[in-house]
TrEMBL record:
Gene Ontology BP term (one): 'de novo' pyrimidine nucleobase biosynthetic process
Catalytic activity: UMP + ATP = UDP + ADP; CMP + ATP = CDP + ADP; dCMP + ATP = dCDP + ADP
Organism, as annotated: Handroanthus impetiginosus
Record field: transmembrane: none
Origin: domain of life: Eukaryota
Oligomer status and interactors: Monomer.
Any one Pfam family match given in the protein's UniProt record, by short name: ADK
One GO CC annotation: nucleus
UniProt: ATP binding residues: 62-67, 175, 218
EC number, as in UniProt: 2.7.4.14
Role summary: Catalyzes the phosphorylation of pyrimidine nucleoside monophosphates at the expense of ATP. Plays an important role in de novo pyrimidine nucleotide biosynthesis. Has preference for UMP and CMP as phosphate acceptors.
GO terms, molecular function: ATP binding; CMP kinase activity; dCMP kinase activity; UMP kinase activity
Name this protein carries in UniProt: UMP-CMP kinase
Length: 237
């Protein structure tokens, strides 16, 4: 399994970014991606680095991240990790952070990095897959730095669904999935937080040459036809 990931990564990662992956690897980070595999040639086991292929999926509230992730999963077989869904699960399972997370989501603010990164790390570690879409994270530069420190790697690529505010608000208010944050006051705050804290993350990855900016307007299928070539070019699946 780890060999296939390594070759996928090599398609997208420049040697520079792979060096960065290794430089950023603290002890805990290495443990995340080290897998013990049988090494018959030497008659025992050896440690091998397992390098997952990670795509961050970013965009404002209602820009269509979750919708497009579902389509990417269906077509290319990556595993979808929605940071928001992980946090909502913490609320519904009455975890120790549940009420803090609920209040933060109601206010449209950002949950502390340590909480979210821990949940994402666990989702990666417990998955059988080695190719991930991390949806709605990182939300801020602080989130990004915490992720890269704990996981010990940068994402391979970043998708950004670019959508006008008016359209995003319309979609969120029509969503009808019973989300506590799908109301006009929270959406306004989320848009503010997106502009102030999330756009700098998008700019960061743009400067690194990892960003794919996708026009998030039009039908779901039209948008997916803009996404498809990104993964098709990587020979994912
Ligand atoms: N291209 C589209 N045209 C119209 N409606 C859409 C489109 N894409 C998604 N939607 C709808 O808009 C709503 C928001 O989409 P989605 O949940 O995928 O956004 P999101 O970026 O994940 O939002 P959030 O950050 O709030 O989780 C959903 O009800 C979805 O069905
Ligand atoms: O990394 C994250 C992701 C989400 N949040 C909080 O959850 C809501 C909803 O997130 P969606 O991605 O839209 O499902 C978001 O507004 C934040 O309050 C977070 O703090 N950190
Ligand atoms: Mg979503």
């Amino acid at each position: 399994m780890w060999r296939r990931v390594a070759s996928l990564s090599s398609l997208v990662s420049s040697s520079k970014s792979r060096i960065l992956n290794q430089v950023g690897c603290g002890l805990n980070a290495c443990q995340v991606f080290t897998t013990r595999v049988l090494n018959p040639a030497e008659g025992g086991v050896s440690d091998r680095r397992r390098i997952p292929f990670v795509t961050f999926v970013l965009g404002g509230p209602g820009s269509g991240k979750g919708t497009q992730c579902t389509k990417i999963v269906e077509t290319f077989g990556l595993t979808h990790i929605s940071a928001g869904d992980l946090l909502r699960k913490e609320i519904s399972s009455n975890s120790e952070n549940g009420s803090m997370i609920l209040n933060t989501i109601k206010e449209g603010k950002i949950v502390p990095s340590e909480v979210t990164v821990k949940l994402i790390k666990k989702a990666i570690e417990t998955s059988e897959n080695d190719r991930f879409l991390i949806d709605g994270f990182p939300r801020s530069e602080e989130n990004r730095i915490a992720y890269e420190r704990v996981i010990g790697a940068e994402p391979d690529i970043v998708l950004f669904f670019d959508c006008p505010e008016q359209e995003m608000v319309k979609r969120v208010l029509n969503r009808n999935q019973g989300r506590i944050d799908d109301n006009i006051d929270t959406v306004k705050e989320r848009l503010k937080v997106f502009a102030e804290l999330n756009l700098p993350v998008i700019k960061h990855y743009s400067k690194k040459g990892k960003l794919y900016k996708i026009d998030g307007t039009g039908s779901e299928d039209e948008i997916f036809e803009r996404v498809r070539p990104v993964f098709a070019a990587l020979s994912v699946r």
